[in-house]
Amino acid sequence: MVTPLSIPSPPYEFQGIELGIFDIKTYALCILVGIVVAALLTSRRLTKRGAEPGVIIDIALWAVVFGILGARIWHVATHPADYFFVEGRNLIDTLYNIVAIWEGGNAIFGSLVGGAFGIWIASRTTGLRFWSIADALAPGLLFAQAIGRLGNWFNHELFGQPTDLPWGLEIEYSNSAYPIGLAEGTLFHPTFLYEILWNVFGAVLILLIERQWRLQWGKVIALYLIWYGSGRIWFESIRVDPSEVIFGLRSNVWGAILAVALGVIIWIVQTRRHPGIEPGPYRPGKEWVAPGKAVDSVYTASDFEHGDDAESPSDPAKGEGAGAGRPPATSGSASRP
């Protein structure tokens, strides 16, 4: 039964705007806004560390394309009954439905895998460290995912189990995803709202932790994976939309568990491999030099790096650590075109 504090679903006409031959989906706009927000925040964080202004464009081109491909592949793989061996559907129709990403069907865990591959390519082409890019991106990812979840609200989709809580989500009885056997007017958990709040709070928390402990070398993205995966384990467990079940758990619950496990592994491995401080966002010899800045031919980044390519955490003023008593190094030898 609808209560005064329940959350209504938007009218169906809010799901898109028709401009001539173009049908602009609100869900797509939410995703695009999220991408822009993540790109702007990531760009600011990278340039603040010394990366070339505008390098985020080079990164985004790879990350977004592979992120979209990964999202679609993951979705199709975890919903095979929707795409393969459908009665009355020929091979051409099957292929169309597989590639028709504009009709919906994206999985965030697939986008993370694909996006990570795109970032790796971008790190090769720009000279930036993979972990520097990943760490800079982590908070923006959470903000982007929070914005993107608004699209589920506009689409009346991916809601949770029935609830008698006053903030339950109103879903029309005619919705094809409405669970069979439930009475009209049943309220559902607004999982889109839960994830928005979880992601925004997580982004702020990670920024505060990063600043307090000066996290680098992949530890920020590790925190992201642990935080986001932990939330998704619960969100996915209470959703009612169809999904492939593997060993009693929804496929995306397994994806969330793997995200948490990967975050823990990255944290442990990177802490052991890189106990020091990142000397900069670029790999040695790939540094970008701002126009007009001279290059120090005597002292280079390699003078204060050791073994694991990290700056010694020792205090130079006390004469300890690599590079003690020497002036700080400037960036590398040439500007990247």
From TrEMBL:
<feature type="transmembrane region" description="Helical">
    <location>
        <begin position="24"/>
        <end position="43"/>
    </location>
</feature>
<feature type="transmembrane region" description="Helical">
    <location>
        <begin position="128"/>
        <end position="148"/>
    </location>
</feature>
<feature type="transmembrane region" description="Helical">
    <location>
        <begin position="217"/>
        <end position="235"/>
    </location>
</feature>
<comment type="similarity">
    <text>Belongs to the Lgt family.</text>
</comment>
<feature type="region of interest" description="Disordered">
    <location>
        <begin position="304"/>
        <end position="337"/>
    </location>
</feature>
<dbReference type="GO" id="GO:0042158">
    <property type="term" value="P:lipoprotein biosynthetic process"/>
</dbReference>
<feature type="binding site">
    <location>
        <position position="149"/>
    </location>
    <ligand>
        <name>a 1,2-diacyl-sn-glycero-3-phospho-(1'-sn-glycerol)</name>
    </ligand>
</feature>
<keyword id="KW-0808">Transferase</keyword>
<dbReference type="GO" id="GO:0005886">
    <property type="term" value="C:plasma membrane"/>
</dbReference>
<keyword id="KW-1003">Cell membrane</keyword>
<protein>
    <recommendedName>
        <fullName>Phosphatidylglycerol--prolipoprotein diacylglyceryl transferase</fullName>
        <ecNumber>2.5.1.145</ecNumber>
    </recommendedName>
</protein>
<comment type="function">
    <text>Catalyzes the transfer of the diacylglyceryl group from phosphatidylglycerol to the sulfhydryl group of the N-terminal cysteine of a prolipoprotein, the first step in the formation of mature lipoproteins.</text>
</comment>
<keyword id="KW-1133">Transmembrane helix</keyword>
<dbReference type="GO" id="GO:0008961">
    <property type="term" value="F:phosphatidylglycerol-prolipoprotein diacylglyceryl transferase activity"/>
</dbReference>
<feature type="transmembrane region" description="Helical">
    <location>
        <begin position="247"/>
        <end position="269"/>
    </location>
</feature>
<keyword id="KW-0449">Lipoprotein</keyword>
<keyword id="KW-0472">Membrane</keyword>
<feature type="transmembrane region" description="Helical">
    <location>
        <begin position="55"/>
        <end position="75"/>
    </location>
</feature>
<keyword id="KW-0812">Transmembrane</keyword>
<feature type="transmembrane region" description="Helical">
    <location>
        <begin position="95"/>
        <end position="121"/>
    </location>
</feature>
<feature type="transmembrane region" description="Helical">
    <location>
        <begin position="192"/>
        <end position="210"/>
    </location>
</feature>
<comment type="pathway">
    <text>Protein modification; lipoprotein biosynthesis (diacylglyceryl transfer).</text>
</comment>
<dbReference type="InterPro" id="IPR001640">
    <property type="entry name" value="Lgt"/>
</dbReference>
<dbReference type="Pfam" id="PF01790">
    <property type="entry name" value="LGT"/>
</dbReference>
